[in-house]
């Protein structure tokens, strides 16, 4: 990463599980990147014996070649030791964000999960964050601990902030068009819908097609 922050504005935000076998993970990520992604996040779901120093550069090389920013889930301290990371995604409001910025000592992207608390939206908006992700819109195995967020909450957040809003949790190409009629959001965060697909390239394209489909509310 250079000294300038990349942008995350709209589209498909892919979350990858470092618990996957490395060859399969890299192959599926490469295919998804071919279809075009807004960002990639390495989920904070590391196996105990994970070699972070080997996986992060390998993932970064693919993302960098595609011009896609790479974020780490929660573990912001990795930003101090790895220039392969463009930012961090927090699952909750960090109490020491000013200290984090001082210690990282370089520009970085910052995103946060909102489980329906509009105070989180207000905090992110006031602290220079780059995007907000709502979890969960629908029940899913990867977001089992997230409460369900209503379209009304997303629309209220849209009135509070101009930051890009992403939605996650049980999102499929089939339910995106209806959700777009109910809520104003900029992108979709996906894990299993792409990384567990037999054809990640086709799966990513299906999400993109559904997201860009026009309807009366867009």
Annotation keywords:
single chain, 218 residues, alpha/beta, TIM Barrel, 17% strand, globular
Describe, in plain words, how this protein is organized in 3D.
The structure is a single chain. The chain has 218 residues and is an alpha/beta fold. An eight-stranded parallel β-barrel has the order 1-2-3-4-5-6-7-8, surrounded by five helices. The mean pLDDT is 94. The chain has helices at residues 22-35, 52-66, 78-81, 97-104, 118-126, 151-160, 176-182, 192-195, 200-212; strands spanning 11-16, 39-42, 70-73, 87-90, 109-114, 131-135, 165-168, 187-190. The termini are far apart. The chain has nine helices and eight strands. It has a single domain, classed as Aldolase class I (TIM Barrel). It is globular, with a radius of gyration of 16 Å. One of its GO terms (cellular component) is cytoplasm. This is Thiamine phosphate synthase. Keywords: Thiamine biosynthesis. Residues 12-194 form the Thiamine phosphate synthase/TenI domain.
